[in-house]
Design brief:
Cytochrome p450; three-stranded antiparallel β-sheet; single chain
């Protein structure tokens, strides 16, 4: 059967471009076929159908487990990183049960408790920077995000294990630094352990050391679990399924790796993009500062979280540069028609977040950063989907948005910053994500008078 709008570029060239320059690959294809096309890429099977029409995406995401499944072999590329018990790889009843165990850690009172930690960590990291000295915004947001993950997920904020995990996570994620090293996860023939100095061998040894630290932390917690602890590891260790069963050590390890890798890398990238666009657009910065100043000298995190213009800025950042290019692949389960194109069982579909967010009919002048579009209009979950959708929607969405807003507000309230280079930042593959190619080079030019802001915390719940 003929698949929808197959690209005519030779298969090998498509695969190489997908690894090295996925944005150009997608945009060139969408110019020919705006709604749906078939590409030859790697990582999700040889042939994949890209879908970026909201109506078709809605049909895919609302028919999980019926016409489509969200896993199959298409997501196995993640297994070396997160393990086979990860929420990313489970399906059916197992996925539903694990998601129900993890979900409570990201809502309500838990979130407000994390707010103080996020603001304090942000202030601490930025306070160590000298004035008028260039720095990489993405390096700084990585530092903040990693420390938030270690505190919020593991409950670690000091000590040898904290330092070891921090160092090893940075080494592990260094593999994603360039399209070349990222290719290890796309080309199976590169996954050869040729010793410590080989890329895959180094990855395996770094991962083993991280596993040893995680299992040691789990073992200690099992011996002296504090019922008052609010970190996510403690919550997961006490969570029980419908049969009263606790998560095994292996299940805990895989969920922790999933939360660390997904939450750390993605949130750091989104915050760096946010700092870039805010300082690329002086009127946006001015409006944001005016809005922040309405909260007074001692705004609490929940009040910051609810600010409408800050929310619009974060949404527009996630629209114009979604960290993930696509939602979880779906595999067709029965003969269907999608946008009038017949599809057979086994066809792999990629609901494409990036191309959906670039649709001119949804977002006029899509290359322009315009936060006002999120104030003037409302978009459906199939038009704006930076965290994916359906049963595979990112479980850490609430924490990611909370962290993004608080970090940006903390920095803007305390410092005057400027971009070092006015040349546009370009998105570049970083593992499974798109990150600013130059890391967003910035400089602190001065301190704002209201440096005492973002200290007072209240107990107002997140709605």
């Amino acid at each position: 059967m003929q698949l929808p709008n197959p690209l005519k570029t030779p298969s090998l060239l498509q695969k190489l471009q997908w690894v090295t320059d996925p944005v150009s690959y997608m945009e060139n294809a969408a110019q020919q076929y705006p709604d749906i096309f078939t590409g030859k890429i790697i990582g999700f099977g040889d042939t994949v159908v890209f879908v970026n029409h909201p109506q078709a995406i809605q049909e895919i995401l609302t028919n999980d487990r019926k016409k489509f499944i969200a896993v199959g072999d298409a997501n196995k590329i993640l297994e070396p990183l997160v393990g086979k018990h990860s929420l990313s790889l489970l399906e059916g009843t197992s996925h539903k049960q694990q998601r129900q165990l993890v979900m409570p850690a990201f809502h309500g009172e838990r979130m407000q408790a994390y707010g103080q930690q996020i603001c304090s960590l942000t202030a601490k990291v930025f306070s160590q920077l000298p004035l008028d000295q260039p720095f990489s915004a993405r390096n700084l947001t990585q530092e903040i995000s990693l420390q938030v993950i270690l505190q919020v997920v593991f409950g670690l904020d000091e000590g040898e294990r904290f330092q070891q995990l921090k160092r090893l996570m940075l080494l592990l994620l260094d593999l994603f630094r360039s399209p070349f090293t990222s290719s290890l996860f796309f080309f199976s023939f590169l996954q050869k352990d040729l010793g410590t100095w080989s890329p895959w061998g180094k990855f395996l040894r770094d991962r083993q050391q991280i596993d040893e630290l995680i299992y040691a932390e789990i073992a200690e917690r099992r011996q002296q679990l504090d019922p008052k602890s609010i970190d996510i590891l403690s919550l997961l260790m006490s969570a029980q399924d419908d049969a009263g069963q606790l998560m095994t050590d292996l299940e805990l390890r895989d969920q922790l790796m999933t939360l660390m890798l997904a939450g750390y890398e993605t949130t750091a990238t989104a915050m760096a993009w946010g700092l870039y666009w805010i300082h690329q657009k002086p009127l946006v910065l001015e409006k944001l500062l005016d809005e922040l100043d309405t909260l007074g000298d001692l705004p609490d995190p929940i009040s910051i979280y609810r600010l409408p213009y800050l929310t619009a800025v974060c949404n527009e950042t996630l629209r114009i540069h979604p960290v993930f290019m696509f939602s979880f692949p779906r595999v067709v389960q029965e003969p269907i028609k999608l946008l009038r194109h017949p599809l057979e069982p086994g066809t792999v579909l990629l609901p494409c977040i990036y191309l959906t967010h670039q649709r001119e009919d949804l977002y006029p002048q899509p290359k322009e950063f315009q936060p006002e579009r999120f104030i003037e209009s409302q978009f459906s979950p199939y038009e704006f989907l930076p965290f994916g959708g359906g049963v595979r929607r990112c479980i850490g969405e609430a924490l990611a948005l909370f962290q993004m807003k608080l970090v940006l507000a903390t920095v803007l309230s305390r410092y005057h910053l400027a971009l070092v280079d006015q040349r546009p930042e370009r998105p570049q593959r970083r593992g499974f994500t798109l990150a600013p190619s130059s890391g967003v080079k910035m400089v602190i030019t001065g301190r704002r008078a209201r440096q005492e802001s973002l200290v007072n915390m209240t107990t107002t719940p997140v709605s």
